[in-house]
Every structure is written in structure tokens, then in C-alpha cells.
Amino acid sequence: MNLDDPVHQALMLLLGSQSRREVLRARHRVLAAMHVQSCVQGRFLGGRPPYGYRLTDAGPHPNRAHASWGRRLHRLEPDPATAPWVRWIFQQRATGRSVAGIARELNERAVPCPSSADRDRNRHRTKHEWIVRTVVGILGNPRYTGRQVWNRHGARTIDPAHHRAQIRPSAARGWAQSEKMSHPALVDDATFLAVQGMRAARPTQRGDTRTYMLTGLVQCQLCGRRLDSHWVNGRPGYRCRHGHTSARNRPPELAKNVYVREDHLLNDLSARFPATADEDGASIAEYLRSNDLTILYGGPTQEVKACSPPCAQVATAKTAREQFLLL
To answer: Which homologous superfamily does the CATH classification assign to the domain defined by 39-199?
Structure first.
């Protein structure tokens, strides 16, 4: 093959195009087959079983070739140790209890979380406690209604233009759900739907949306974390709980929460950057982001002081960005 020959170059392009076309055709065939197996047959297609279930043998593989290799089907059945806790989570949430309160009581009762209940399949997870996100994932998983689900999460693809991985939402393509019951249910449909309605985003009393101008721009001076957006007394603010979450009791030695109002920050920044000041603070936030600036907050007062380069290096562990220190 002579790559300097135009004919050979054209032949290589043709072969490459045909190879990619065959790869796409094989991908579509596999996805279509998995969609049918999930919807029509209700087959378990692999992966870790959800918390509350365990895998059991479901007979030989229907494909003769796979059956000759010794492969067998699997199905989900309730786990006697964890299934009662899944039912308890749905019952507690259906009564109106908060997700954080459920996670906190599970930790207080020393109930094994998904990562500790099945260590063989969760060796990559190091923490062994319930968090709010884990409870939310259980409450939003339709597998607990007894139906098999496939392609519920987004597919990971490679963007050819930027050579970067992208997450393609599966909601746009529609995820597959079995037409009939494929395994014993841990919660009925009515309770599951009621819980989803409770988790839906609620509008404010005025029907408007809440906007935080300085999201991601305020950093805690005590622990180095980004301050969380927090709505208090009808106005936006930012707080840092230094790693504490509502899923566990607050340690007595933990420092007090850091909180600052957004309007106080905008007033101080408007005085320091009068050229970028506006009514709603959008120009100030855009100026901070475009110049890679960060606000350091670590005390009860709102006085803004510009740090000299040595002070900024000490306060931010030798960062190269220009920053401000709110003492």
C-alpha cells in the first residue's frame, strides 16, 4: 500500500467508511435486540442488582450457542436482609418524611448501605453510610415496581469533533420498560407514583424561579469548599457546612456554618468595581467569571479587602488567581 498514491488514499477512505458503517449497523442491531428483550421478555441484561434484590438462576440461556457455553439467565428476587428496608424507605417517604430524615435514621440504626451490603460488586466505593443521593436513587428506581428497566441512564458516547466523552440523555431516546411483571415488586404502583410526585420540583409561592448570581464564585476560607446556594427569608444567600450533610448528626467539634447574603456581597463588589455595577448584579458576576476571580469568605462581617499576592498565596494555597478575602 502506497499512501502517497491518490488511488490508494481513496481506497483507504472507502474501506474506513465501510468499516464505520458496519460498526454502526452492529450497534443498532444490538440496541434493538436489548430493547426487545427488556420490553417483551422482561429479561435481566446484567449489571449490579438494585439494593433490596439479589440474583437467582432463571434457567438455561435461550440462545443455543450461549447455552452450550454454560451461560444461564438470571432474575431478580427480594433479598431477605435488605428488601424490608426498601419497603420502609417508600413507606416513610409516602407519609411525607424528608429524604434527609430517612437517610439520617438509616445511619442511626446502622442499616447497611448499598456499598456495604454488597461489597463484591461495590469494591470501588469506599464510604459505608447512607447519603441523601442514595435514598433519592432508590425512590426513583422503577425496578422496585416489579418491571424490568433498561437504558434508563444516559449513554456515554465520544464527540468526534472534540474527541471528548459526552453523556447523551436516554430520556430523549426513551428507556425501555417491560410490559409485564418480571420479578416480585417491593412497592405498588400507586405508592411509587405518589413518591415521584412528592419529589417533583415545587414552584415558589409567587410562581417565579430563584436565581443566584454568584453561584460557584464564593469559596469558604475555613475549609476551601464552594459555598452552596441557599434561600433564606425570601432572598438568596450562600452557606458552607464544612462537609456536613443532613444524612447524619452534626459532630460537636465541627465549626459553625458560614453564611453570607448575596445582596451584601454584591454591594461590596459594586463599591470595589463601580464600572461593572448594575441593578441585578449580572455584570459583576460576569466580570468575576471572565477574569477567573474567586471570593473568599470566612467570617461574620462583610468588609472586602483586596489581598496582595503574598497574602493571596497564603489564603489559597499558592493559587495563581486574583482573589478577594472577606474577613
So the answer is: Putative Large Serine Recombinase; Chain B, Domain 2 (3.90.1750.20)
